[in-house]
Structures are given as C-alpha cells and as structure tokens.
Amino acid sequence: MCLAVAVSASAKDYYASMFGIKSNGTTLNTTSIQKAIDFISEEGGGKLIFKVGRYLTGTIELKDNVTIELGEGAVIVGSVNPYDYRQVGDAFGLIISNGARNIGVVGLGVVDGQGRELANNFLAQVAVGVIKDPLKLGRPAHRPHLFYLCKSQNVTLKGINMRSSACWTCTTDRVDSLLIDGVTVNSRAFWNNDGLDIVDCTNAVIQNCFVDASDDGICLKSHHKDVCNDNVIVRNNTITSSASGIKFGTFGVGGFRNIQVLDNVVYDTFRSAITIQSVDGGFAENIVVDGLKSYNTANPIYLNVGQRRGDKPSTMNGITIRNLYAEVPLDKPDYGVEYEGPTLEDQPRNVLPCGIVGLEGQPVCNVVLENIEIKFPGAGNPDFAKVGTDELDKVPEMPKAYPEFSQFCELPAWGFFIRHAEGITFKNVKISAAESDYRPAIVLDDVNGASFEKVSATAPKLKAKYFVAKNCRNIKK
C-alpha cells in the first residue's frame, strides 16, 4: 500500500518560537499555535517544529499541508479547562482536523491530554448544570479526544507518544490515505479510553505501535451508513487493554471490507484478542487475521452477528484466521490496573470458549480457521452451568445486546461454541485444557456445512465428548 507523505519535499520548516509560542508549561498557547498553523498553511505548507519544553494549549486545528514535528523532549500539554476546547464539524479534541489534506504529527515527543483532571473538570461542570451531558454510567459522554482527525486525506502520525486522553485517544474518522506508524499510546486516565479508533477509513496502515488502553486497544468502527472501512492493514502492533485487543465494532453501521490484521501481539487483556462484530445493519467481509499471538487474555476469538438497530440485516462473510497462538488464563487477566474491566457485570463464572455466533436467518458465513493453537485452563464447574448440550435452545439469541464474548455469561463448551453459521472450516486446529472440564470442547448448534480436518482437543480426565453437534447439516470431521 502506498501512502502520500504529509507535506511536499519543498515545504519549509518553521520553529514554534517564531510565533511567540512559550515552552514554560504555564502559558496558554492556543491562539499562537493556531496562528502558526494557519500561517504555514497559507504560505503553502511546511513543518511547525517544537523543541524541548512543555507547550500548554487547548484545541488546535491542523490545516492543509501542515505537519507538527515534536522533537525529543517536546510535550504538547492539553489544558484541563473544559472551555479551552472547541468542536469543528464532528471533530472534538486537543488536536483536530476537518477536511484537511496532507497533514501530520510526527517525531519523538509527547502529546499529553492530562485526561483525568480534564475529565473530572468536565464532570464537575455537568454536576452544577453548566455543561449538559447524559452522564452515561456516571461518566461525561461528551469530552475531548486527544486526537480527532475527520474527513481528511493523506494523514501521517508517526513516532509520537500519545498520553492520558480524557476520552478516546486517537480517532481518525473518514480519513483516506492514513499512516499510523510507531506510535505509543498510554491512555488509562479515565474510563472508555480507547487507544486507536479507525472509523470508516480507506487505504490505511496502522503498524509498529504499542497501545496500553483502559478500553479497546485498536478498534475499527463504522459510524456512517454510506461509507465503510476499506483496504486497512493492522500490522506488527502490541496491545494490552481492559477491554478487547483488536476489535471490529461495536458500531458497524456501514461496514468492514478488505482488512488485514497481521503479526500482532495482545496480552493481559480483559476481553477478546480479536473480535469481529457486525451488529448494526452493516457488513464484515474479506477479513484476514494472520499471525496473532495472545497471552493472558480472556478470549482469543469472537465473531458475532447481531441486530441492534434498523431493519437492514447485519452480515458477516469471508473471515480467515490463521497462524494464531493463544493462552487463556483461569483468573481475570487485568487484575490490579486502575480501571479494570467490570468484574460482576461481565465476568462469567466459568471460562468461556471462542465464539462464532450468528442469528437465526443471519448466519456467520464462510469462516476459515487454520493453524490454530489455543491453551485453555479448563476447570469448568458444573454448579455454575446454566445450559447443557441437551438444551441449546436455552442459550439466548440476544440480537439487541451489546456484543461481547461474555454476553451469554455461561456456555456449554470450553473450546469453541458455533451457532447459526454456514461454511465453517477448521484445519490443523489444536485446543487443550490444562484441567478437566465437564463441558465438551466444541459445540455446534444450527450449523450448515462445516469441515474439521486435523482438529484435536485434549484435557486431563476428559469428562465429556469433545465434539457435539445439534440441529446441524453437512458436517465433516
């Protein structure tokens, strides 16, 4: 994939000091930084270079042909005053764009949102009635992102450290030709701090990044029904999260097409290593996950079709997952971090299996799992069981539920639960349980067309059949 650079080779360099921008960490530089960006754009483009220092600011908007370069030791510091932030179009955050071309933020420096203090100040203003906000789950919903780059083209984010957002850390929304390369995200300042959110972007590469987030690590979303994520590569990233590592959804109004997820590592993560969801009337098709390694993560794979909104059916067709290795812990994998995943709300008593779960009449179609090794803890306790393999109709459909691997609370399999699916292929799949488990390894319910070649499931003192299929047709094993 070829991506344009943010600025032309003939562009000029401008130093922040030229515009009276102060590096003392106390002077509010919003106006002077914005003046510098506007001036450079009007002059045909160039770099705005920040040297060592702390540069306090509110919202700054990138304009055509301008790249911010943060030298080592340079820190852009977000104001903690809610009224220092503004919204332009859909973009609300510290560093934003709206329809700009050839823009970027690069270098070895830091963008620090001071997110916890900023979010709490938003909350205080909501409490006294000055800012109107629905306070979902006691959290202000409308608070600034660290980056929100919208409707822009030829965008480069490279090398920088993104730290302590008040909301999602970096959102790229309807961006064409996007490169996020070698970025470090440390964002556990508040709840819902997603790492990198890729929303309806085309021709995008997200690579060589490290993401530590209190919500989803790298998350592809589709908020707009007439567009989708198309031609996206997510490659060679390392992720730890109190939600999911790499996630498609939850919003999937448009869809996801031609996506490659290559050679990534997920560890110490509360939910799924890879979850692909089509639950909002959109589609997920032609997606390849290759070379994923998952350690101390509660769920390796979750594929789900739901119908949360609208009458247009959600669809999933053409998912390939290969060369995956995963280790699933018996205990909660994110114990001890400041914003853990919700223990009582979503933590099942028994370790849950991988899931490929559609809806009746809206199956998950044409899924290939090849060269897979997953080590489960086993140790399922029948006293916690809600559904057995002789009563699969009691597993709820849940078309309107918020989709997570834990939405069913308990499932009657320890390795894979596959329901409402067509065209499922397992080839060279090895699953094992460290301790005995009362459940079968693999359970199929309403599956039409499935092939299991070189599939093994091992556990000490295996107490149940390793494979159970109910209401199924054309199964080969």
Q: Over all CA atoms, what is the radius of gyration?
A: 23 Å
Shape: elongated
User: Which percent band covers the strand fraction?
Assistant: over 45%
Helix content: under 10%
Number of DSSP strands?
A: 35
Q: Count structural domains.
A: 2
- Total helices: the number is 3
Distance between the termini: 39 Å
Structural class: mainly beta
Largest sheet: 5 strands, parallel, barrel
Round the mean pLDDT to the nearest integer and report it: 94
Adjacency order of strands in the biggest sheet: 28-29-31-32-30
The poorly predicted ranges are 4-9
Notes on the structure:
The protein is mainly β. It has 2 domains: 183 residues, Single-stranded right-handed beta-helix, Pectin lyase-like (Pectate Lyase C-like); 267 residues. The protein contains 3 helices and 35 strands. A 5-stranded parallel beta barrel has the order 28-29-31-32-30. The longest helix has 13 residues. The chain is elongated. The two termini are 39 Å apart.
Offer a concise description of the structure.
This protein is mostly beta strands. 6% of the residues lie in helices and 49% in strands. The protein is elongated.
